[in-house]
Amino acid sequence: MTFFQLQKTCGNSAARAGVIETGHGRIETPIFMPVGTQATVKAVSPEELEAVGARIILGNTYHLYLRPGTEVIGRFGGLHRFMHWQRPILTDSGGFQVFSLAELSKISEEGYAFQSHLDGGARHLLTPESAVQVQMALNSDIMMCLDQCIAYPAGREQAAAAADLTTRWARRCKAHWQAAAECPNALFGIVQGGMFPELRTRSVEEIAAVGFPGYAVGGLSVGEPKALMLEMAAHTLPLLPAGAPRYVMGVGTPADLIEMIALGADMFDCVMPTRNARNGQLFTAAGTLNINNARYRDDTAPIEPGCDCYTCRRYSRAYLRHLYLAREILVHRLATIHNLHFYLRLVKEARVAILEGDFPRFRKAFYAQLETGAGGA
């Protein structure tokens, strides 16, 4: 089975459409992956995820290793049966979570030594080998190499050292993955290099030389200005092997997705649609809508006129505002359904435009609607 097939590139941009084949189904790209850190996408069920068009979701090695633990999940044969999700799953290595909990961790050539953020008790060691081993126990369709992520700003020396360590760890991850001859799951390498184009180039060359079924651009969305993020992505993405999926980690806003697709990216993940939903911010083609705004007190319209998601077909802005102000849990579910539907509809429409050779027009129309829309209130 061919893992990735590039179907079409859009002649007037670097945008591309493809298909990833996994043991749990095919993934049409470009694709957005809802984040299910703790073996659940917050506030919604697997059936609701399927209804909004999710083809693949993301789980987290660090959190699932700590709770409930691979022994528990292993009894179910992996995450799919444990969480009742039979479509593909990607798991990240846990490196970013250790990075974000830096006060509890210490990095060395061997790996990350850290204390659990849950109880601060026993120390753990996350190595390249154990990161892959945990992901194999989770039985995720796409696994990620352990990498060293650094904060912004970081000096060139620090960025170079992190990229070099990431390469050495990538070799160890691949060796452990290959040693498990019966492992059917794919392993992606991660490119680092901070905000230094020459380091990004070197990292791509080294990670590609190790050789993986897919490649991720790491170290973006770590606090850098938006323009710099796009500059680094524009430099890095064309350097990645064209015959493999390109995954930009932790991105982002709807406009970020459109720009990354234009630059040749295939896969994305971000907590924004789910987290913002729980904070009352809803995404529409005309911009973001803050449901707690007083202007929606008597508004009988749906979140987004014309949207065919479960929420918009049944509920008004006024009702959602009432739920939000009353702190009713139902609003989290209804808002999350809409936001995920919006994100997945956006990448689906982008894919259609690419296949039709019309992505530049689609991109222009996306921004025109934002400029003329009434969202953002």
Describe the fold and architecture.
Helices cover 42% and strands 18% of the residues. It has helices at 46-52, 61-66, 70-74, 79-83, 95-100, 128-138, 156-179, 197-210, 226-236, 254-262, 272-278, 310-314, 317-325, 330-355, 359-372; strands at residues 4-9, 16-22, 25-29, 31-33, 57-60, 89-92, 105-107, 112-115, 123-126, 142-144, 186-191, 214-217, 246-248, 267-269, 281-284, 287-290. It starts with a strand and ends in a 5-residue tail after the last helix. The protein is α/β, with parallel strands linked by helices and 377 residues long. Strand 1 and strand 2 (16-22) form a beta hairpin. The strands form four sheets. An eight-stranded parallel beta sheet has the order 4-14-13-12-11-10-6-5. The mean pLDDT is 95. It is globular.
Short description:
With 377 residues, this protein is α/β, with parallel strands linked by helices. Helix content is 42%, strand content 18%. It has two domains: 31-241, Queuine tRNA-ribosyltransferase-like (TIM Barrel); 277-371, no CATH class.
Give me some keywords for this one.
377 residues, TIM Barrel, single chain, 8-stranded parallel beta sheet, 3-stranded antiparallel beta sheet, alpha/beta
